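Protein Record: Sequence and Backbone Structure Tokens
======================================================

Structure line: whole-number tokens from a learned vocabulary of local backbone shapes, matched to residues.

Purpose: to set a sequence beside its fold so the mapping can be learned.

___
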Amino acid sequence: MKKQLLALAVGSMVVVPSVALADKGPTVYGKVNVSYENQDDGTNDEWKLESNSSRIGVKGALDLDVDQLKAVYQAEFQMAVDDGNNGSESDKQTFSQRNIFGGFEHATLGRLIAGKFDSPFKKSQGEIDQFGDLRGDINKIVGGSERISNIIQYSTPKLANAVTVNVAMVPGEGTTVGNERRDSPADGISSSVVFDNGMLYGSVGYDSEIKTNLFDLGDADTLVDAMHVAAKLNMDQFEVGALIQQSENSDSAVDGGDYKDTTYIVSGAFKVDRWKLKAQYGVTDTDLTNDKVKLTAVGADYKMAKASKVFGYFAKVESDNTGAGALAIDDTTFGIGFEHKFSM
């Protein structure tokens, strides 16, 4: 009873009172992930305490007076556990927006949500990542890992108990890219087809004119068309994953040329008793500069309880610095930390 009252109290601070007082009430959830790390970028070698996208959120569903239809909502915030600051020194923010949306879900027609949240492309590529939110995260070398504002997404129900199709559109809302004003209903599109039966995961993702980074442009943001194929095998003791992705700028007239990144990533883990030993390796090959950006990460997790673990890891992100205008990246990280998840 006390847990239910606490969940309602926290939920009332994030969503409107009418939602907080729903029959089932909201679920309050989150995680605290903190690591103590030595970070060396080739210029500075220093120790830091990192918050690693620790978060708190509230989510839930409301039964409506329409058969098989319910309202769904989520409000999730990143919290800075280390120094209380997710913003700049001039604009300190303990909490910053992560995934926040509202919408509707029908048992047989699917789900429609709108707000700011991870794109279908990002969610479907990230399933293979063994070091998410750490400095060994695959987004260190691959573009498209975007949490997009002003996004509207439709998702089918799970077809044949395994397949889900997700399509999202992003209106430009009057923004300007080059000399082009983006004001159509769907200036950007993000989509994915996902197969997941518990043991085998597979996805195909496609982005069209989504603002993200290209290493071939010096890691600068631009409008990008991208496609990936990802797969992961989950067994009792083993996990094996792989991703292949190709990204290119949408408009050569705006960027002054054609730029293309091709990324290959493999990941794996071995579980024995409470231990999980894991590793991943990836390479992004830039087309114009002929540069390569490489990610190597190894680590181990020790499960203290179902929702708690301690971990240690090593990660290195580097470029081979070949070709005109090549990148110069040499980041090495060693860290130890813990993660506690909670839900009530």
